[in-house]
Amino acid sequence: MAIAKAERLMNLALCLLGTRRPLSKRELRDSIEAYVEASGPGRGAASGPGKGAAGSDDSFNRMFERDKDDLRELGLVIETVENLDGEVGYLARRDSNRLPPITLDAEEAAALGLAAKVWQQARLAGAASGALQKLRAAGLPEDVDPYEAHGALEPRIPVHEAAFEPLMLACRDRRPVLFDYRKATAARPETRNVEPWALECWRGHWYLAGWDRDRGAERVFRLSRITGKVRSRGTAFTAPVPDVVTVRETVASWAGEIADRSALIRLRSGSGYPLRAKATAVRELGDGWDELEIPYGHGLDAWLVEFGPDVVVLEPAELRADVVDRLRAVAKG
Q1: N or C: which end of the chain has fewer CB within 10 A?
Q2: Across-strand partners of 208?
Q3: Which residues of the chain have pLDDT under 70?
Q4: What is the pTM of this model?
Q5: Considering only CA atoms, which of 120, 97, 243, 230 is closest in space to residue 175?
Q6: Closest CA to 169 of 115, 230, 249, 82
Q7: Is the peptide bond before 176 cis (omega within 30 degrees of 0)?
């Protein structure tokens, strides 16, 4: 249905842009195949009595009005013109729907090229490179290399999770979703009913922020913990979408980035470089171990578990207990 609607909107836009005079609803109905098919067998009896013709006309009128509103929302300027006979026609003048020339300097070109390069390994690679080619055709100087200014950088946003694409589309279309989610402390996944808001990459992992309907609260989900397929639901959002979705700040607080005290851990030598970068003090213990003092905030236990046997929590006792509980849950699963 989504593909059929997109094709119908494209055909309507081409008709309105290609005409030199206003086209009536009747003319548009006869010119666009999707409208002809939607009219059904009752269209031929439009001049005679019966509910079939009236129902067909009503169905077309509703479809046409929705399509016209969608095109206007997308930015197409559609004029409504009434002729001498009182018949209403529609057209989209090319001069009213033509974008000004695009001009980019070297810095802007480099920024766009870098953004396109970021998605090189992701499912959006084709769209990103296609957009860059369109910008070149629209005026990006041929002698400007978008990658030259940042040749030493190799930015990447890896997207290996199968849930990324359906969730990206659900965020765009504002469609609630269902998926099975396994928490770090749980042996088995649970079904989550979520209204998706935004996706964000943080420290090499993708996270989804949204409204958890069953819990009645905002939640953040790590995509690598989603199991099975993401299923769409044909219902509307029940909670308002905030103007600003702070995915990274929420995840950072859960990962111990917002800390109000310190923790003491043992770390195997030559490992755990993200922990070493956070450490406020490091002391060599010998025998292949170091002792680190790191900031301690909510959720630090979940992050320490990811380093497995390379980390041993010394204090505080509650952090050590939380890490042990998580490791036991993983072992059972």
Answers
A1: N
A2: 199, 221
A3: 1-3, 39-55, 99-104, 106, 109-159, 184-186, 203, 251-259, 333
A4: 0.45
A5: 230
A6: 230
A7: no
